[in-house]
């Protein structure tokens, strides 16, 4: 009986401590928000990147809005093809949709451009919001490619090589960059 009580006690302690690890405090951004004075990328719209399954049947389209004040806002849409994306995009970019997503911390981050390099840091959700730094190259004013990704607060994990290419789409109804999550 004592063995069972000890086992249950240990299991409860492990469960509670693992919940803290997953739902503990959000990580803080390590990068400062710096206004973007460069003209390296167009800012009168958003940048989009498809992330498709191996059969290219389901795609998640990641949208990045970059603002002159150094803030970035992201959202995504799921679509099966370009035609469906065009239909969904109108509702996804509605003021109501953007307003709902503006209250979600992991949709926000900061970015900096220095020379032809772009670096951004944002939260990614996994029980709590972890911060990642991604870096890459600006190819021209309508295209940038992210080449590496690493956890901001876990440098011992090293960086992961990625290849994420973002292309510009002109869009004049950009959301506001005001957020409570970034000073």
Walkthrough of the structure:
The protein is an alpha+beta fold. The chain has one domain (26-170). The protein has three helices and eight strands. An eight-stranded antiparallel barrel has the order 1-2-3-4-5-6-7-8. Strand 1 and strand 2 (59-66) form a beta hairpin. The termini are far apart. Mean pLDDT is 78; it is low at 1-23.
Summarize, please.
By secondary structure, this protein is α+β, with helices and mostly antiparallel strands. It contains three helices and eight strands.
Task: Compile the SSE list and pairings.
Blueprint: H1 2-23, E1 45-52, E2 59-66, E3 71-79, H2 82-92, H3 95-101, E4 108-114, E5 117-126, E6 128-140, E7 143-151, E8 160-170
Antiparallel strand pairs: 1-2, 1-8, 2-3, 3-4, 4-5, 5-6, 6-7, 7-8
SSE series? HEEEHHEEEEE
The backbone outline, from C-alpha atoms, is globular
Helix content: 10-25%
Q: What is the number of helices?
A: 3
Termini, distance in Å?
55 Å
Question: What does the largest sheet look like?
Answer: 8 strands, antiparallel, barrel
Total count of domains? 1
Please report the total strand number as a whole number. 8
What is Rg?
20 Å
Oligomer: single chain
Strand order of the largest sheet: 1-2-3-4-5-6-7-8
Beta-strand residue fraction: 35-45%
On the 0 to 100 scale, the average pLDDT is 78
Structural class: alpha+beta
* Uncertain runs: 1-23
């Amino acid at each position: 009986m004592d063995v069972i009580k000890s086992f249950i006690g240990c299991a409860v302690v492990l469960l509670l401590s693992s919940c803290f690890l997953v739902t503990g405090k959000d990580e803080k951004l390590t990068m400062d928000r710096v206004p973007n004075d460069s003209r390296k990328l167009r800012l009168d719209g958003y940048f989009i990147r498809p992330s498709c399954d191996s059969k290219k049947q389901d795609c998640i389209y990641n949208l990045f809005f970059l603002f002159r004040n150094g803030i970035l806002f992201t959202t995504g849409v799921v679509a099966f093809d370009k035609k469906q994306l065009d239909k969904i995009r109108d509702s996804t970019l509605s003021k109501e949709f953007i307003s709902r997503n503006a209250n979600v911390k992991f949709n926000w981050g900061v970015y900096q451009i220095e020379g032809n390099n772009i670096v951004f840091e944002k939260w990614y959700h996994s029980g709590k919001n972890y911060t990642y730094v991604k870096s890459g190259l600006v190819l021209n004013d309508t295209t940038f490619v992210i080449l590496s990704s690493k956890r901001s607060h876990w440098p011992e994990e090293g960086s992961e090589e990625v290849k994420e290419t973002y292309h510009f789409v002109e869009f004049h109804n950009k959301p506001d960059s005001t957020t409570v999550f970034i000073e």
